[in-house]
Amino acid sequence: MRRLGTEVEVYSKLINEKYIYVDKTDIVNHLITKEKKVFLSRPRKFGKTLLLDIISEIFNGNKTLFARQKISELADWEKHPVIRIDFCKIDFANAPIKQIMTNYLLKIAGDYRINTETEDCHEILKTLINKLSKKKGVVLLIDAYDKPINKFIEKKKNDLVDENIIFMKEFFSAINDCENNIRFLMITGTLMHEKVEMLNTIKGLKDITISSNYSNILGFSKTEIKENYSEYLKRTAMLWGNTSDEVVDMIFNWYGGYSWNGEPKLANPHSVLKFFDNIDFKCYSIGLGVPALLLKLMKDNQISAESINNHLSSARSLDCFNHVTGDPYSYLLYYGYLTIQNYNKKTGIYKLAYPNLEVKESIFRGLLEVFSQKKHSEISDYIFHIEEAFVSNNMTILARHLKLIFSGILPDTDESETETESLMFSIIFLTFRLISLKYYAEIKKENDTMNIDLKIFDKNYLLSFSFKKNESEVTCEELTDIEADNNVIRANFVLCNKKRNIHNYSVSI
Predict the structure, then answer these.
(1) pLDDT value of position 28
(2) Which run of H or E residues covers position 186?
(3) CATH number at residue 127
(4) What is the pLDDT of residue 72?
């Protein structure tokens, strides 16, 4: 079988070393012939860097690399000077951004043997473009433009965030002075930070993120997986006793569902290739870690993991992300934790939803870590033992590990009783969403007491969680039925708001 290019972001390496490449070059050709200055947002690990490398090779005139691709007979293969600025490969930790970018651009100038006669990075960029364009218009490719902003947002260093936004605005404005010398400009990123103030600094920059012409430029469709990875599908189908079509459906259930205009639905390429490599469904891309900023936004805005799904947003609210006042749903969308399920053209309203199981599990696990103040490894251990408790019908083990999850919550004297109940409810909900058992939940509130009843279908359990204000009110009460069978095992857990933990529990059969 031909090799999987799981971590390969260099197009020449993919072709020369005979990795599988899903041909998108017909869409790329449309992009570089019909557009001049574009911005594209996609989640991490979706192929943005590889896309820019492909565009670079096309404008370098390397036709032989595309002999078997759709673009071979479409492009004119006219050679142009290419300037690539890969923010994803630059370390911004040890010096001011202006100094780092000055050194970076001076190296590019040295590679082209251009004397810039200045050490101002904005002037260096203009000099590079103007001198290289004497024969042909320059192609400027900027990857991960938002890295120097996202990096410090997640570290809560707002002074550096503001400083870098100002720098990027000035950096992009320098491009306007070279308007007539640019053949093609493409900027990629994850978030559209301060779009009006920063990216709109570039005159005529077109956002193609949700354009129907380019919705399929990154990501795999079901057809593309079937046509390009048929041998891997057959191998997996044989091992699992499924058909290839069934395996594709399972892959899309885990890694598909992405769309930026409602159609088509696409799968994350990195996750698909990692799946074929491991033949196991895990969190490979989104599971690299839910950003701390996202979890903080959800917590501060009281956004629950369940309420995210099927959220309605206007185009204006999703237009950009402000790290201080921005709409959390724009962050969720552009980072790949939500996708556009459909779009109502009449109302201008987008319906956002979880794209797949990889995203759901990552969000649930990340939020549980934040709410319970527990580490990733601790949560994994607790979830394992809770599942084992149901296998062995041991409610003592279940209670013990539920208590361990709650034990990380510190008392908060400024928190209201409603907020405490909401936090504890979220922990219960997230915990049971992470176990591999199907359940039905019913929430009741009687006499100022909130109760959550969970019916575990796989094991015929009925669990009830009652919230009490303080220890003096805590008793093990009789369970309320939820249309349960006579053979159901009933467990009643009483939680104390003051202690922020399970105070007592009882089991009956």
Answers:
(1) 98
(2) strand 182-189
(3) 3.40.50.300
(4) 94
Other CB atoms within a 10 A radius of the CB of residue 16 amount to 10
Is the same domain home to 503 and 380?
Answer: yes
Q: Which domain holds residue 489?
A: 373-508
On the CB side of 140, CA atoms within 13 Å amount to 30
List of residues 6+ apart from 169 with CB closer than 8 A: 197, 198, 201
Q: Is residue 367 part of a domain?
A: no
Cα–Cα distance, 127 to 79 (Å, whole number): 20
Whether 379 and 353 map to the same domain: the answer is: no
Q: Are 120 and 33 in a shared domain?
A: yes
Task: Let me know whether 277 and 324 are in one domain.
Answer: no
| Domain count across the chain | 4
Residues in the chain: 509
Percent of the chain with pLDDT over 90: 42
Q: What is the SS3 string spanning 424-452?
A: HHHHHHHHHHHCCCCEEEEEEEECCEEEE
* CB 194 within 8 Å of CB 324: no
Among the residue ranges 7-11, 112-116, 286-290, 496-500, the one predicted with the least confidence is 286-290
Q: Are residues 65 and 184 in the same domain?
A: yes
SS3 state at 173: helix
Cα–Cα nearest to 362, from 22, 45, 40: 45
Distance CA 406, CA 499 (A): 10
Q: For residue 358, what are its two tokens?
A: 């990889």
Distance of CA 409 to the CA centre of its chain: 27
User: Quick one: tokens of 1?
Assistant: 């079988």
| Mean pLDDT comparison of 35-49, 86-100, 359-373, highest-scoring range | 35-49
Provide the pLDDT for residue 153. Answer: 66
Q: What is the pTM of this model?
A: 0.86
* pLDDT tens figures, 451-481: 788 888 767 788 888 877 655 444 444 434 3
